[in-house]
Every structure is written in C-alpha cells, then in structure tokens.
Amino acid sequence: TEIPCDGIGLHTGKTVRMTLKPAPAGTGIVFIRTDLGGAEVKAVAVNTASTGYATSLRQESVSVKTVEHLLAAFAGLNIDNAVVELDNEEVPIMDGSARPFVRLIAEAGIRTLEALQPVRKIIKPVFVREGNKQLAMWPAETTSISYFIDFNHPMLKEQSLQYQPTEDAFLRE
To answer: How does residue 76 score in pLDDT terms, banded at 50, 70 and 90?
Structure first.
C-alpha cells in the first residue's frame, strides 16, 4: 500500500511530504518530484551526483538529496521496485537512520513480484581506492560484508562489523 510520510530535510531544513508507492516489476526505484511537475530521478549509479555527507541523485536538471537511508531500507528489505513522490528536494531525515523507513515499509507490506531481477555477480576480485578509502570485493557463494573504519579520532576510534545481509538480519539490526 501507499505510505505517506512527513518530515524535515536534514541539510535544507525544509518540510517535505513523501509518499512511497508500490511499482510494477522492472520499474526500479524512481523518485518523482511533485513540486517540479512530476520530474523523475531514477536511483541508478550513473545518477549519483554527490556522496559527501549525504548521497544526492541527479537526472538532467532535477535532483533528490539525502537518499541513503531510504535506499538502504529498500535494499535491506530486497525491494527493487518503488515510486517515491517528494514535494521538495530532500528525503526527510526522520531519526537519522533507515529504521523509520523499514518500519513504515514493513507495516505497509511487501509483495513479491513474479519477474526475476538481474543481479551482478562478482567473478573476479575487484579493488577500488580513493585517497585513504578502499573497497575490495571477492567472488563468493553467499553475500557477506566485512567493514573496518578508523577515523583516527579519540571519540570514534576503530570500528568493525561482520555481517551476513538477509532481510531478517536487516530487520533485527
């Protein structure tokens, strides 16, 4: 079912009304700016405009800001198809995590569609480095994430995580 949600954009401070809507197979995740006459921004890698302090998507001259927590909720719940209507440029921050979006989506219900989604399979090791940040991916039978960060700051110190991403684990964590 449709999920209405109101909130404030973290970076803009503007009030935003957002509605999450089910979408047919093959739609993907699409943001629709109702304040701009229904202009669309598809949540695909090529539309990534920035990732500093928040993730913004841009398609032609239309952008949507601070999408990372909502997209995490969709990914964690294995949702491939949805329409996100916004009457402003930024997704509401809620409590600063994906949890409120996960709860809203779970309450509305998730329907499995019959169409298969294409998946990317890692067939050889991949390494990406930018400055002091790096990412490595290896072929494996099941998905797992090992995460390590060191901000070299007395309040944050080193942090690590070992995670097997499943819908149940995502809901629990």
So the answer is: very high
β-sheet with 29-33: strand ranges across: 3-8, 15-22, 82-86, 29-33, 39-42
Cα distance between residue 138 and residue 158, in whole Å: 23
What is the C-alpha to C-alpha distance for residues 78 and 112, in angstroms, rounded to an integer?
Answer: 9
Strands (DSSP E) contained in 9-152 are 15-22, 29-33, 39-42, 48-50, 56-59, 62-64, 82-86, 126-130, 133-137, 145-150
pTM to 2 decimal places: 0.87
Please, where are the H alpha helices in the chain? 68-76, 99-108, 167-172
Q: Give the pLDDT confidence of 86-137 residue by residue, as tens digits.
A: 999 999 999 999 999 999 999 999 999 988 878 888 999 999 998 888 899 9
Spatial separation of the C-alpha atoms in residues 29 and 154, rounded to whole Å? 39
Dihedrals φ, ψ of 42, to 5°? -85, 140
